[in-house]
Amino acid sequence: MEYNFRAIEKKWQEQWVHSKVYQVKNDSSKPKCYVLDMFPYPSGAGLHVGHPLGYISTDIYARYKRLKGYNVLHTMGYDAFGLPAEQYALETGQHPAVTTAKNIKTFREQLDNIGFSYDWSREINTSDPSYYKWTQWIFLQLFESWYNRNTQKAEPIRTLIAAFEKDGNAGNPCPGDRTIQFTAEQWKSYSEKEQREILMQYRLAFLAYAEVNWCAALGTVLANDEVVNGVSERGGYPVVKKKMRQWFLRITEYANRLLDGLETVEFSEAMKEMQRNWIGKSQGAEIKFAIKNSDEKVEVYTTRPDTIFGVDFMVIAPEHELVQKITTPEQKAAIDAYLEYVQSRSERERMSEVKQVTGCFTGAYAINPFDGREVPIWIAEYVLAGYGTGAIMAVPCGDQRDFNFAQHFHLPITNIIGEGFNGTEANPTKDAILQNSGFLNGVDMRTAADLVIDKLEEMGIGRRQINYKMRDAGFSRQRYWGEPFPIVYKDGVPYAIDEKDLPLELPHVENYKPGPEGEGPLANITDWVNIAPGVKRETNTMPGYAGSSWYFLRYMDPHNTHTFADRKVTDYWNQVDVYVGGTEHAVGHLLYSRMWTKVLYDLGYIGFQEPFKQLINQGMIQGSSRFVYRIHGTNQFVSHGLKDQYETDKLHVDVNIVDGLVLDTEAFKKWREEFAGATFLLEDGQYICGQEVEKMSKSKFNTVNPNDLVEKYGADTFRMYEMFLGPVEQSKPWDTKGIEGVHRFLKKLWRLFVDEQKGVVVTDENPTPEELKILHTAIHKIDSATNTFSFNTAVSAFMICVNDLTSIGCRKRNILESVLILLAPYAPHVAEELWQLIGFNESILNAPYPVYKEEYTKESNFTYPIALNGKTKTEMSLGLDLDNAALEAAVLANETVQKLLDGKAPKRVIIVKGRMINLVV
RNA sequence: GCGGAUGUGGUGAAAUUGGUAGACACGCCAGACUUAGGAUCUGGUGCCGCGAGGCAUGGGGGUUCGAGUCCCUUCAUCCGCACCA
């Protein structure tokens, strides 16, 4: 009987399906554990070896926790709405639902091949109406809620209306527009339309005109994180700013809670830092400066109010509304020219020429409230309209950009930090003592900041202000393949559709071309859009992140038709205990899902406000591409070492027909028709390819399909090899070479149990202390390594264990049973098979995890390294029960040591019991 | 520019957190069994040196009896953000 992994794996995969061993109940006397993967977008390319890295980790962990006595929720599904399917539909006319279903089928087959323990009865698909019904429902909750800054949580919009009817909006200033102010009487006098317009400024999901990233080539609006260097992430098409009426989520109201929540979760420091940067909290002050000969005021935001005596000029954004009002007639022509220049510059240019200093003087002067100094007001593109107040007070001695600006335009620089400023570059210190600063002279900057703000508040021209870089999240897409908004417009006023009419299903369309004026394809279906005279549907759809913002909740209760997930069930499963996925979702998906969770928590639908307790970022598996070199204009290929002698074209070649770096030339000729007649210039009889590490992608022919490896070595080998590659968090190029070693290990393990001729050879003898030591060393190492996601070291511990047991010929049931249970999470098929072969009828999944007993690994002796001045010279086996004096005596009596000491006595003897002994001379 | 991470043999990587650097594998070398082997098994394999021995964790410095691990400094690579006042 040899290790026939193909038969074994097929048998157990069928057996698992048949006996429903992975179905999980929503209650149990056992403690719960929720282990989740970021669900994939089912692309047409299928899975490559990079995808399962995370999935295998979670599967091992989930199986491990189950053996440890937990009720484990471990699920998989598909993030199935999205642009690629729609692009494909545009090109081929195939309905996205059709291609998506096909892709899902491929993914499922590939996943099943690897032997995962998902509870597939809970599978979800975000494009399924039974799922997006609840995405739409949650959207309506967002639409019907506002953020109460007094209670610091989301509340139903009716509590806001009640407040308006009582006190107007005095207690609840408008987050969308601070200038909106009204009394209770005024509120009651407004028409319904006016009231709803005001409420819109408060809703968590709201409509606003805003500049969006408009990509004409894709015919759609893109999120900031879908725009890279001014072009679309997909396709690399140009992106421009365009004003459109868009849905937004008021995530900025949650900025502070999203920030504070990071303290309560276990994410990597890198991940937390990325989110902190994205949220970008800063504390400072808003200050109003009077303008000379004008009633206008210019309001700036600064984080450094302490430097107010160092203000030498003001800069406002070119888009700032004050520009037209304060520009003097003499400067008008210059300013107009500058504005024209700014408008002519694409987003891309502005980004790529960050260091260039440009600007223009308005002719107006602002007045420093403390010393009455008049400083010029400039406009410049380095000041952004969208951040703070769109205006700054410039302190060139303390801020490098202000300094560069002052130098460029020859503006005088006031020094308020004495020797701290050297005149050649700005010094942004906060630790100087102020000089040249009126009433602040001699005060340190940190203290001065508070003094200034207090004084400004007293004078009524300034106040403390916290700002965030984060913007509200755009939530509309002019696309077809997404969730339709459950919204209708009556005379242009948006209303929620009735909950009982959910889901609002995505209608069928004839084609996927964008609608008129940048609208989505839905706008083309006029009889769907126009419900009644004056009543129209929303034609935008929701963005890709809508469905993924809450899917972890649906897995808990996937078939519930009354609610998105029953409160009792979400209370039971609670937070995701371990969430595994790539870093690319650091600021998108992770922030949105954290926000949705907080909203649902505020509204009382769930009982926790952080979705993911622990996050592990799997590294990216890169592709290791191979290249061949074709002599230009011929069909002759030259080996890598000889290529410099010719003029060649470098071509990607399929990594699957290259062994290491050696090309299989026959396979190459068959690979593509155009190479059928290829000839080769070889080195030492071989064609050597070039290699480069690149992203794994079909177009680079460097993808490796897990199916091929599973076919050749088996799922168990594949699983363990992926883990053996290195720490899960680390990115590394894929290399199939080492898989043999893991395969050998499994064959060796098999031979511990089964002899080719004799069959099962396991005995019932009692284990020796040596065997128990091998086992318990393995238990200790594997248990803790699995628990800490250090799977690569666990695999090596398995190898050591099996090597040791093989070399002493141990075939004892007592030992081997435990080894199998340890192995079951890693290589579930072979573990089940051997478990059955040694006589168990029940699945190994329900066996108890072995418990480490220290007594078996305890030694009476320890082989001490004996070092002289910290350098190991020899070793001695000495009793662990010896005290330091006895150890010292034994060491000094040692022949080698005496020779080394050469008659001299050591100055000091350092003894670390059970570790080492060091002689200092 | 700011923030984060990483740097260890020919390769992937270990190292109980300050205590024998290179476990476990791949690759390579030698051998055994073989008609054969891309099967299996045995031994070897950081570098220099015939050897005793010396040198080695990106470089330089420091703390310590002892540093891959802590501190300072410097270089390189990768990732994220990027005119955020």
Description:
The chain is α+β, with helices and mostly antiparallel strands. It is 35% helix and 20% strand. The strands form eleven sheets. Strands 12, 13, 14, 15, 16, 17 and 18 form a seven-stranded mixed β-sheet that branches. Strands 26, 27, 28, 31, 32 and 33 form a six-stranded mixed β-sheet that branches. The chain has a four-stranded parallel β-sheet with strand order 2-1-24-25, covered by helices on one side. A hairpin with a 4-residue loop joins strand 5 (145-148) and strand 6 (153-156). The longest helix is centred in the C-terminal third of the chain and has 19 residues, at 769-787. The protein is globular. The two termini are 62 Å apart. The mean pLDDT is 89. It binds one RNA strand of 85 nucleotides through helix 10, strand 13, strand 17, helix 14 and helix 24.
What is the count of helical runs? 31
> Pairing-aware structural class of the strands and helices?
alpha+beta
| Count of individual beta strands | 39
Distance between the termini: 62 Å
Layout: helices, strands, pairs:
Layout lengths: L4 H15 L12 E6 L14 H16 L3 E5 L1 E2 L4 H10 L3 H18 L10 E2 L3 H15 L1 E4 L4 E4 H11 L16 H6 L2 H9 L4 E11 L4 E3 L4 E2 L2 E2 L7 E10 L5 H7 L7 H11 L1 E11 L5 E6 L10 E4 L5 H5 L2 H16 L2 H6 L7 E8 L6 E6 L11 E4 L5 H9 L36 H15 L2 E7 L4 E2 L12 E4 L2 E4 L29 H4 E3 L2 E3 L7 H4 L2 H4 L12 H7 L4 E4 L7 H14 L12 E3 L3 E11 L4 E3 L9 E6 L4 E2 L2 E2 L1 H7 L7 E3 L8 E5 L11 H8 L1 H10 L7 E2 L5 H15 E2 L3 E2 L8 H19 L3 H17 L5 H11 L4 H10 L16 H4 L3 E8 L2 E9 L4 H10 L1 H7 L6 E5 L3 E5 L1
Parallel strand pairs: 1-2, 1-24, 3-4, 14-16, 24-25, 26-33, 27-31, 36-39
Antiparallel strand pairs: 5-6, 7-8, 7-11, 9-10, 11-19, 12-13, 12-15, 12-18, 14-17, 15-16, 20-21, 20-23, 22-23, 26-27, 26-28, 26-32, 29-30, 34-35, 36-37, 38-39
Helix pairs in contact: 1-28, 3-4, 22-23, 23-24, 24-26, 25-26, 25-27, 27-28
The structure holds one RNA strand of 85 nucleotides.
